[in-house]
Amino acid sequence: MTDFERGIERLVFEHFDAHRHQRTLFDCGRPKLNEYLQKRLNQHMRKGIAVGYVLADPEGRIAGYVTHSAGRLPITVIPSGKGYPPDLPLPTTLIGRMAVDRRFQGRGLGAALLVHALRMAVQTTELVASTVIEVDALDDAARSFYLRYGFCELPDDARHLYLPMADARTLITEILDGK
Ligand SMILES: CC(C)(COP(=O)(O)OP(=O)(O)OC[C@H]1O[C@@H](n2cnc3c(N)ncnc32)[C@H](O)[C@@H]1OP(=O)(O)O)[C@@H](O)C(=O)NCCC(=O)NCCS
After folding, report:
1. Which of 11, 36, 120, 178 gives a 20 to 30 Å CA spacing to 48?
2. Per residue in 2-33, pLDDT tens?
3. What is the rounded distance in angstroms from the CA atom of residue 147 to the CA atom of residue 168?
4. Using CA of residue 112, residue 123, residue 91, residue 128, what is the dihedral sign?
5. CA of 95 to the centre of ligand 1 (A)
6. Distance (Å) from CA 114 to ligand 1 centroid
């Protein structure tokens, strides 16, 4: 095991910074998600398409990342039976991409990234309304990860998932209280 892999307690959440963080070394096992971090996130941040947060060590080595954007559910995709107005698009917070480097998978960082994303989403709703957190799971493994935390399917696609903002608030409180 390298110093980097041993130093899990040295990891902190930071805004992604292309000058400081070593994005070329990141490998989560999914080429699309590696490439997004390596080639597109910086540009997306500059253009206001996404905000990226990384879990990185003081040397700038990245163990995981997550991105956020504002989203919108069209009326054709609004879940029924939840009390949402059926005739208005819903404002969402989109978790665009989330990944953990292979060397760190299975050590709790995916959960930490998700909790961080939920906290940011909940805090942001004090300033800009957002009804649900939305995610497009890359594959069935990613889908089952999100389902484990209470995400539900949206009507258009089994991998298009949502978590009501109120449930995100409860989940964070439970996790922080160690329940
Ligand atoms: C999916 C991913 C983010 C999970 O990260 P991780 O660091 O391995 O997950 P954690 O160690 O934090 O796991 C937290 C919990 O989720 C569970 N879990 C992890 N992966 C899971 C999966 N695919 N399905 C169901 N549960 C899963 C763990 O068993 C753990 O449960 P526990 O708290 O009861 O022990 C990571 O495997 C990854 O980056 N995969 C490749 C990229 C990807 O698919 N990203 C999602 C894109 S939409």
Report:
1. 11
2. 888 888 999 999 999 999 999 999 999 999 99
3. 13
4. negative
5. 15
6. 10
